[in-house]
Amino acid sequence: MLIIFSNDFYLTKKSIFMKKLCVLLLLICSNSLFAQKTIVDTITSQKLNEDREIKISLPPSYDKNKTQKYPLLVLLDGDFLFEPFYGTLSYGYYWDDLPEIIIVAISQNKNNEREADCMTDADTGLPTEKGEKFFEFIGMELIPTIQKNYRTAPFRIVAGLDVTAGFMNCYLYKDDPIFNAYISLSPELPTGMEEQIPERLAAIQKRIFYYHCTSDGDLKKMRTRIQAMDEAIKKISKPTLNYRYEDFKGASHYSLVPHAIPSALYQIFSVYQPISTTEFQEKIAILPEGYVDYLIAKYDVLEKELGLKLQIRMNDFKAIEAAIIKNKAYNEFDLLAQLAEKNYPKTMLADYEMAQMYEKKGDIAKAVKTYMRAYQLEEVGDLTKDMMINRADELKATLPKKGQKMEEPVIEETPVEEVPTETPAQTPTEEKKQE
């Protein structure tokens, strides 16, 4: 039975039907825009001397954006980890909080494959027998095959649960690990790993993202060693290590997984997210200058660390505008306009930024002229032709008539726009329609 609450208390059958129809249409539109293409394939492995099934999920924009490269997520235990990772990423895509990535899930559910695949030596903790072959299969066959056939960025993530989580840590024993980020869900650690992994994280020069977790309902033997490893890693102080550990309360060994996956992904891709209220208040608004430089640096990190070359979001432009106005650093509008010209050529954004600079500095005639020039260009985001013409007309009314002496302009601080929230001003569906 469906119970609907409303302020009117009673709803007609027609209104109930219309509400259901709207929800249905929204779900249909969302699924079509943000659905990933999933392919089930088989790799014939020379290392394993067998065929291994894999599931590949391509991002929603993969076929549309022919030049974009995407980070790669390799899932061990792909049989049951694929769906929770897929769901979290799909949700993140919808709000533009997580980047689109390529998922490759390895099947390990036949004939107890996961145990054999992850075999390690009892004395050294290193991969042995089939474990050694599986280790080489991922690095020497699987990843090169995916790179050859799909547009992958150089940023790679690996994830696993218990046995597979412990095994994947072995890639950190390499001087130049093939993975940049590790999501280790309640790992069953091979011999000596709680001491060796902290040593390796301290020694590796490249930037590493490392996430691991346990819970108060986890297996005691595993939990004790996981906690010991956390204590050792916490002593490492280096800017190239992005580390997070979580101990979930009221969760079991298996139920911690749906809690940990979004936490891990949002940690790894925190720099990707649009400028939030917290980031604005704690990192941007307090700067004495360099607001545009901050925005440029934010997207440079995305390109250098994650291999993502992205167009700067309109939401982030608005955040920098707000910081410039709040701190009366009006000359920075010139730099922001140059950045707008690179990211949104042929649109009114660059001229809009320049017009704001002239207006705030009291050069009303130039502001009017620039708003009128913006009026002739393409609309973008929430900037419209009506907005430009209305602003120009309002400023024209303040200009002196012929023969009338112009008074010294009084520059008033314009109220700061509401700082963009974590949720973009437009829904992704609306942005897709504009494109």
Question: Would you write up a description of this structure?
Answer:
This protein folds into 3 domains: about 1-35; about 35-270, Rossmann fold, CATH 3.40.50.1820; about 275-435, Serine Threonine Protein Phosphatase 5, Tetratricopeptide repeat, CATH 1.25.40.10. About 45% of the residues lie in helices and about 15% in strands. The protein contains 16 helices and 8 strands. The protein has helices at about 15-35, 80-95, 115, 130-150, 165-170, 195-205, 220-235, 255-270, 275-285, 290-305, 315-325, 330-345, 350-360, 365-375, 385-395, 430-435; strands at about 35-45, 50-60, 70-75, 100-105, 150-160, 180-185, 210-215, 240-250. It has an 8-stranded mixed beta sheet, sandwiched between helices. Helix 7 (about 220-235) links the parallel strand 7 (about 210-215) and strand 8. It is elongated and about 95 Å long. It comes from Flavobacterium dankookense. Keywords: Signal, TPR repeat. This is Alpha/beta superfamily hydrolase.
Going by CATH, what is the homologous superfamily of the largest domain?
A: Alpha/Beta hydrolase fold, catalytic domain
Please indicate the count of domains: 3
Percent of residues in helices: 40-55%
The CATH class of the largest domain is Alpha Beta
Mean pLDDT: 87
Cα separation of the termini: 40 Å
Q: What coarse outline follows from CA principal-axis ratios?
A: elongated
CATH architecture of the largest domain: 3-Layer(aba) Sandwich
Major sheet attributes: 8 strands, mixed
Computed CA radius of gyration, to the nearest angstrom: 27 Å
SS element count, helices? 16
Q: Structural class, please?
A: alpha/beta
Give the DSSP E fraction (strand runs of 2 or more residues).
15-25%
Oligomer: single chain
